[in-house]
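Researcher: Let's try something more involved. This one mixes different molecule types, so please make sure each is placed in the same coordinate frame as the others.
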Amino acid sequence: MVFNLSFKKEGYTVTRHVCPRNCYDACGMLAFTRNGILKKIDGDPKHGYTRGKLCAKGYSYVQRVYDPNRLKYPILQKKRGSGQWKRITWDEALDIIANKILELKSRYGSHLSMALNKYSGNFGILHYAVEGFFNSLGPTTLAVGSPCWSAGLDAHFYDFGAHKTSDPENIKNAQLIILWGINPAWTAVHSMPFINEAKKCGAKIIVIDPVFTTTAKKSDIYIQVNPGSDGALALAIAKILLEKGLYDKNFIDKYTYGWEKFKRYLEGYDVEEAASLCGQKPGLIKDLAEMLGSTKPAFIWTGFGLQRYVNGGQNLRAINALGAITGNIGLPGGGVHFAHQDTWDFNLNFLNVGQDKNEKGKSTRYVNINNFASQLKNIEDPPVKMLWISCRNPITQDADSSKLLDALKDLELIVTVEHYLTPTAQYSDIVLPATTHFEELDVVPSYWHHWIGINEQAIKPYFESKSDLEIAQLISKKLNELSPGSCNFPYKIKAENILDGLFNEKIYRMLDIKHWSELRESPQRADIPFTAWKDRKFKTDSGKYEFYSHNAKTNQLPALPVLKKGTNCDLKYPYRLLTPHSQHGLNSQFQNLRCILKVNPEPVILINPKTAHKKNITENATIKIFNNYGEVIAKAKISRDIPSDIILCYQGWFPNINFNLNKLTPGLSTDMGEIVTGSKGIAFYNVFVDIEKI
Amino acid sequence: MAKRLSFLVNTEKCIGCHSCEMACKNYYQLDPNIRWRKVYPLHEETFTLPERNFMSLACNHCAQPECLRVCPVGAYTKRKDGIVIHDHNRCIGCRLCTMACPYQVPQFNKKYKKVEKCNMCFQRIDKGENPACVDGCPMEAITVIDLNSFDELGTVEAFAGFPDPRITQPSVRFVKPQIGFQVRRDR
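Model: All components are placed in one shared frame. Result:
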């Protein structure tokens, strides 16, 4: 349809949805369906945070559902990586998978040779059915951890004892907003109006980021720091706050632990050295400290990129300390914000390993998702022979993808559940088509705002696609047909009844509903304090905000948020490579859609004009970035968004273009992460490269 | 003319997120290659420091529409409220309008072999609703104003990167972007 004068709002069936991607905003959506076809999407005006608006990706969902490249049927690859695919029936696919599971069980005496690699492609709670299926088999091999936010979560655990955020609307009450390593104009657009509103009421906006982002452009003051030096800057500010007496003595005395020790550390801290580490002048740091020390409330929002360094967790602890020193924590419009986990208290029994009477003495093997390739290669007794991938595209998103490809060679069966033939799907034996959140029932919380909403089924599954839950149930059924009693994953229960079991009194009370089906009327805001830590009852062992953390010390980390330096470039690879989220995609999702390709057709390598001059590179020249691990080729874009020692590429998956940035990522670990997520994060930004014109 | 409806784009508020463009595409389910509204970054070469400003442009519903003037089959009409409408049924796909418009607004659809463009969601306007792009913008940076009664103080007809408004007298106004203070470690 191009131009239809008879367009009417009437005649549509409207259903409620929540975008389930790994995104701050988790937007409320309305789907408009006619004759069983999804016709358009709208923002859900009843969602108090996203308020009826979507981002460009959200408005592209009809395209995403009906994209001609979307997978329609289960397919089998003749030889892995050959690209020779054959359509098979669901029954054939299930037969191959179930027989392999049973054969491996009899070969090794357990299901430990089966591994699962799943993460954030869909955060709907029914998608935990995949873990549920694995756990129902008894001990298996499970990838744990998060490539995303682990170090920051641990930093907050050490300092606060839990993860809480104020409602984003709370930003409106701020007098000073520090957006530290976060670019909401790209990654959380619905928070930007609150920032603007605060600005209108006189708040000053400071953006601290190595990259001149769109958010930086919208700020009053933009400070370009050296990547990974945020801790050095925060501690220098802390020292000046201390020297000038600009700290909140009452807050520190009443609500913090370890101030004396931290104070002694700060007394010996060298501001000049810190300034040179972060590429700033001491005078500027003084100005910043004075602004922070004299403006209340100050709302500090720290991003995820900030903690993707070998010293990321420690840097975050230093920034958190600023919130405590100035007594901003617990103030409306104040505090230090990262992410929360307050609305995720569902009965996730799926995550509990089931009892398998035949396997005494064996327990589930947890392998670090961020070191998956090495572990896959080295794990023995039994080795991993079958891999299940869902809600993930590790070949583009994991560090050192060459190593991963190599490790996958030894596997006998790789099954990927997907919407599209991603690089990971392309390297699988069987690909099963997955439904979208318009084709399945689900419930989705957020880690930033406090709303929870439902995904109703708006349309029938696209061709033969199925949900993760249904797939888990089908294999369970098949396993029991082939070998009765071999799998106790409940395959006769409807999704509705499983949701009944996932909800509990606490969540219902929080949402002020009696049954999840009420979410069909409206998404609900969870009844948690509008201002995080308003009661200043911290969840740490001391019950206070901990400058000094015994837990950190126990985990071989500095007890105090002391300066920890990152890694630097060397002569061989003199440029740091930053690979933040792109504007048009979410990790490896969305960028493959035609309407998105229209506005962002190909990947580019951003280089500073000075670097371009030095290397004799002109705009749009094809250039190569490389290091010991690999190389990536793309067109150069000359940009002053970055300084001359940084090369920037936005991460993502472009179809039919060989552009895998993680070939260059060695996969160093962040300093923290194992407490909250089970393993350390990936230091995605401790990557150094050289560039060359080709 | 009773009204002169126009888009007012607040480029200070605009974050270049493309939501307006995609909201339009979503509402009309346009061909993926067709853009009735376009968001693009402005060239920065003329600035001392990068500004990162964006232009969000749909049809400007000009007072002197070149598309209407050059169309040999009368596919274009200008309503009393100023909205320039393109009639898909009359269009023969000659593409004269695509060459005449200084803003490259009319787009040629290869599938239908006809031109199409933004009609300011006139059906929605007639119902008292906002155009899809206006409702879709998370920053509320786009509004529809009536230039005959709008107080233009604080707005401009054009700024760097926008074609000369004297040609067609576009019914579009902008709030100019402001620039903050930048502390760079390397210039």
